[in-house]
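I have been asked to look over a protein record a colleague put together. Alongside the sequence sits a line of tokens, each denoting a local backbone shape. Please read both lines and tell me whether the tokens look consistent with the sequence. I do not need a full report, just your reasoning and any doubts. I have pasted the whole thing underneath without changing anything.
>
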Amino acid sequence: MLATTQLQAQKIKWLSFEQAVEKSKKNPKKIFIDAYTDWCGWCVKMDQNTFSNAVIAAYINENFYPVKLNAERKDTVVFAGTTYINPNPDKKRSSHQLAQMLLQGRMSYPSYVFMGDDFRVLTVVPGYYPPKDFEPILHYFGEDAYKLKDWTSFQSTFKGKIKDD
């Protein structure tokens, strides 16, 4: 457990998608992906309120390889033998094929992709969440509770560290 002063200094150590995949190949760990766009106000609010929370940051850093994925990125990505591009990189609000695949075609921002250490998408969680509401979601997937119980059961018994927003 982190001491309070260490916890206060916590910031999420964001990686690129490619970096997270490489790290997970060497040392398997789930990947947490924050799919955002530059024009998304709720994405900014999530960064300012939730991802800046020390408890959230510490948990994400410890249990996942965290990825910031611009869903409208312009470059080419090769993942699992498939090449992904942004088909209209100069067009406004053109989504990248990698984001489309990860979000399973539901292009809503912000969205969070929980990916197993086998690189399979476990689930996609869309929307803004304050820290207190996001904490149980992280634990549900970070602790593999999703394999043992349904979300409602887990959420009703979850005791987090964040008391109020």
About this structure: The helical segments are 4-8, 17-26, 41-50, 54-63, 97-102, 131-142, 151-157. The radius of gyration is 16 Å. The chain has one domain: 4-157.
